[in-house]
C-alpha cells in the first residue's frame, strides 16, 4: 500500500514537472528574429544592392541571371550583427 502511494506521489510530481517544462517551452521567445529585425537597418547598403539586382533580374527573359550573391551578402551582414548579441542572450 505504501509503495503504491509513493508511486502515485512520484507520478504526480513528474506530471507537474512535465507540465511546467511544456509551459516554459510555450512561453519561450525566439530572440534571433527580434535581433535580426533590429540589425536589418544596419545593413541597408547590401539590401539596396540586392533589391537593385532583383529589379534587373526581373527584366531578364533568359532566366540565366540571379541575385544569390547579393542575397547572401545581405544576410551575412545581418548575421554578423546578430551573432554577438545572440550569444550574449544565451549566456
Explain this structure.
With 91 residues, the protein is an all-alpha fold. The protein has one domain: Ubiquinol-cytochrome C reductase hinge domain (Helix Hairpins, Orthogonal Bundle). The relative contact order is 0.11. It is a peripheral membrane protein. InterPro entries: Cyt_b-c1_6, Ubol_cytC_Rdtase_hinge_dom, Ubol_cytC_Rdtase_hinge_dom_sf.
Topology:
Layout: H1 2-27, H2 31-40, H3 44-58, H4 68-90
Helix pairs in contact: 2-4, 3-4
Features:
91 residues; mainly alpha; Helix Hairpins; 4 helices
Indicate the low-confidence ranges by residue numbers. none
Indicate the CATH topology.
Helix Hairpins
Ends distance:
47 Å
Shape: elongated
| CATH homologous superfamily label | Ubiquinol-cytochrome C reductase hinge domain
Major sheet summary line: none
The total tally of domains equals 1
Q: Any idea what the CATH architecture is?
A: Orthogonal Bundle
Q: What is the CATH class name?
A: Mainly Alpha
**Strand tally, please?**
0
How much strand?
A: under 5%
Q: Mean of residue pLDDT?
A: 87
Rg, Å, rounded = 25 Å
Order of helices and strands: HHHH
Structural class: mainly alpha
Helix content: over 70%
Q: How many helical stretches? A: 4
Amino acid at each position: 500500500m505504501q509503495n503504491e502511494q509513493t508511486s502515485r506521489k512520484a507520478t504526480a510530481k513528474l506530471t507537474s514537472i512535465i507540465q511546467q517544462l511544456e509551459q516554459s517551452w510555450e512561453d519561450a521567445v525566439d530572440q534571433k528574429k527580434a535581433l535580426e529585425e533590429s540589425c536589418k537597418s544596419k545593413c541597408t547598403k547590401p539590401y539596396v544592392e540586392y533589391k537593385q539586382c532583383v529589379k534587373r533580374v526581373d527584366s531578364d527573359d533568359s532566366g540565366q541571371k540571379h541575385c544569390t550573391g547579393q542575397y547572401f551578402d545581405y544576410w551575412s551582414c545581418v548575421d554578423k550583427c546578430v551573432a554577438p548579441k545572440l550569444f550574449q542572450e544565451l549566456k
